[in-house]
Amino acid sequence: MTFDAIVLAGGGSTRFGGVDKAMLVLEGVSLLDRVLTATKNAGTTVVVGPQRSTVRPVEWTTEQPPSGGPVAGIAAGLAHGDAPIVVILSCDLPWLTDSDVTTLVQDLTGDGHGLRDTDGREQYLVAAYRREALAEALKSIGDPRDKSVRRFLSPLALTWTNPTRAGDDVDTWSDLDD
């Protein structure tokens, strides 16, 4: 099944002391490159954030105005590609694989299908969505700047996996030690 990928990589990384989290290296590979490797089968991959050197060619965009948060990033990324399914990922998913992304796309029912992290939390930024559903949700929310991801996606019919390490993101230095 054809899909596009939006990778959100424009945050301030405040819990990392301003270090560019996307470029943190784990076992010789940046967190961003790990996510880009996991999305290698996407028709179009767009990274929302400042341009960086990456493991493979991608499209780049930023939300307007900059620093508008993840919903604004999703809105900017949705302007790229045309596949009926869009996989939305944060850039800080070191354990995500291409197999996990394939499963998200193949198991999609309703409006979206996402991963739960090992603690059972639903990870809205590790999920496959129907492009039409995202577009409708964006229309409904109005200006996407500084909007809550949960509120933005709350009207959608979503399903979730069982808890998995692939859904664990990296928010603090200690998350890398797990």
From TrEMBL:
Domain MobA-like NTP transferase intervals: 5-154
A biological process term (GO) from this entry: Mo-molybdopterin cofactor biosynthetic process
Pfam family membership, one: NTP_transf_3
Entry-linked InterPro entries: MobA-like_NTP_Trfase, Molybde_CF_guanTrfase, Nucleotide-diphossugar_trans
Keyword entries, A-Z: Cytoplasm, GTP-binding, Magnesium, Metal-binding, Molybdenum cofactor biosynthesis, Nucleotide-binding, Transferase
GO molecular function: GTP binding; metal ion binding; nucleotidyltransferase activity
Protein name as catalogued: Molybdopterin-guanine dinucleotide biosynthesis protein A
Source organism of this protein record: Kribbella amoyensis
